[in-house]
Write a structure and sequence with these properties.
Two copies of one chain form a homodimer.
Chain A: E1 2-4, E2 7-9, H1 28-42, E3 54-58, E4 61-70, E5 76-77, E6 80-81, H2 82-96, E7 99-111, H3 116-133, E8 136-145, E9 153-163, E10 179-182, H4 188-196, H5 214-221, E11 225-230, H6 235-247, E12 251-254, H7 262-271, E13 284-288, H8 293-303, E14 308-313, E15 321-324, E16 330-332
Helix pairs in contact in A: 1-3, 2-3
């Protein structure tokens, strides 16, 4: 039994146990991995470890279905790890469609030589995140690739959520005049990953905003929200540019209304990043009819005091996203062609 | 425009175009990948490329949900590629639960430097396999990892299928006396992968059995089948050992009834593999009440003339799987602890 990262690992593995190719071979070592690590962590009545699929009962209606693979480096960072990210990221994608997240799958691609303790710790984190978000992990898969053909742990989570009757959250619902609400301060996740990298040369500890927003979003659905979008890869700017294109509308936002923590702002300035394009993992924007803004904002402020109105949908023509800067000028936001920060999720 | 593997690639990429980290960054190159490769291939009314989840309508009842990651090497092999494998493998897992496969997700983890032409060709193969199996790919994700941190292409597919009322396919349904039917000759997929490897030193071309069995299985459901299991990692022996354990029954099979192609048998002998433990990707066993054997077998023989009855469920005690050899002796089959063939799926 060893202690690391605050976990005590009750595995019958010796202290320096590592994942081998045979753990992915479908034989007795694969079964040991399931019985000793996955089944105890993900235990629930719908979990299926002895058959090819999990079986769930649903009522007639609409379901949301989504998938994401997670390849973040480092695997563990301030405010989270690849496990919490893999649960919260997919939970949030379901929530952004107006769905109540219910079930997740978990597919692991492990690199030969991975410390068993690291896998265990990541799986414990998935367990905790799933409990917090109110979802069940009910089906899974493990593959192992040769050393040097992977990078520790990659995780795919796919998710199923149920959409209540009458809920229609989509870019096509957006109307001219809608107001845009932001759920909190931005750019923390991307800068937390960057500052956690050994080669970043950056000492300032920034904590990721990685969290489930499903509870907050379910309350918002009653407040007449028309569209939601989480601000992951590409950050706030990319999310708004995508929505502007999909919905065929223009958008105007005010830089002075967009909260960025001082240490995050400082890190962005030093390292040359624009916080508007830096990834978040627990932040979203909501598009609402102005008559619903007060109610929606009061719900959002309960989750984060930094939530605020940052702009509005203007005339449909142009499909532009315009930023009113602090200095009083305006500039158009464009999609980045390159990669700001590889492997932040 | 280039021609390779019988495909003509209509991409606006130059002939030597490769995947870069920026293709996974969520910016304009990610969008280009979606618009030029994924959307045209997976086009269907339920495909969602502009929102966080796909939305599907379902009737009240039972759904099957499953996931698998695919890390096969080489990416392209006789009889299939990682794309057809990723579709058929997950389709077959749904079918093994008695479900009609309906929807798939597709999560790609690409290695920086991958030839764009290879990605395109694999995606075309997924398109064809999905059409053949009658499933729609409706949601997806792409990540790119640095060169040397992946291995060309890894694919996760998760799947949703619907289970008709009254269908209950599970190890717990198996009864003493049930007969065991095998859907065709075994061990081709594993040996096809092995012989396709550059370092195998093996020239004999063996074609994988990779295929959807969903159509065949849906017909079988009307013939009163009690349990189904596909014979993937670990092959026929591992599948039967797992079922014996889950169902709490013993199983007896006859070696002389198990079809293995001559070239596959030869390759196994030369290379030291037991065909009973070699992976298949289009083969399964069905457990049936003896009164239903004739009907079930006639359905299975339509899909493969090699389908046949290979054994039966004996007394519950012991949970043993026994092989009656051609020589007339008996031996107990045990789960392998090691890895016969890494990365065959």
């Amino acid at each position: 039994m060893t202690e690391e990262n605050g976990f005590s690992c009750p595995l019958p593995f010796h202290e320096n146990a590592v994942v081998t190719l045979a753990h992915g071979g479908g034989g007795s070592l694969t079964h040991q991995l399931i019985e000793k690590i996955f089944r105890p962590a993900f235990d629930n009545p719908d979990l299926e470890t002895e058959h090819d699929s999990a079986i769930i009962e649903v009522g007639a209606g609409k379901l949301a279905f989504t998938t994401d693979s997670y390849v973040v480096q480092p695997l563990i960072f301030p405010g989270g790890d690849i496990g919490s990210l893999a649960v919260n990221g997919t939970v949030n994608d379901l929530a952004m469609s107006g769905a109540r997240p219910l079930y997740l799958s978990a597919g692991f691609i492990l690199e030969e030589g991975l410390a068993m303790e690291t896998l265990w710790s990541v799986v414990q984190s998935m367990k905790q995140s799933a409990l917090s978000a109110g979802v069940k992990i009910i089906t899974g898969d493990t593959k192992v690739v040769d050393k040097g053909k992977g990078d520790g742990i990659f995780i795919n989570t796919s998710g199923i959520g149920v959409i209540e009757q009458g809920v229609a959250i989509h870019p096509s619902q957006i109307q001219s005049g809608d107001e845009i609400l932001l759920s909190g301060d931005i750019a923390r996740h991307g800068m937390a990953i960057l500052s956690a990298r050994k080669d970043s040369g950056f000492q300032n500890q920034i904590e990721s905003d990685c969290a489930s927003v499903a509870g907050e979003v379910l309350s918002l659905l009653d407040a007449g929200v028309r569209c939601l979008r989480d601000l992951t890869r590409g950050g706030l700017a990319t999310a708004l540019i995508e929505i502007s294109g999909s919905a065929g509308v223009s958008i105007e936002i005010n830089e002075s209304e967009i909260p960025v923590q001082e240490n995050v702002k400082g890190a962005c300035e030093i390292l040359g990043f624009d916080p508007l394009y830096v990834a978040n993992e627990g932040r979203f924007v909501a598009f609402v009819n102005p008559k619903d803004t007060a109610q929606a904002l009061s719900i959002m402020k309960k989750a984060s005091a930094d939530a605020r109105k940052i702009g509005r949908v203007t005339e449909p023509a142009g499909k532009r996203v315009t930023l009113k800067t602090r200095a009083g000028s305006s500039r158009m936001l464009n999609m980045l062609s390159g990669e700001q920060l590889p492997r932040i999720c």
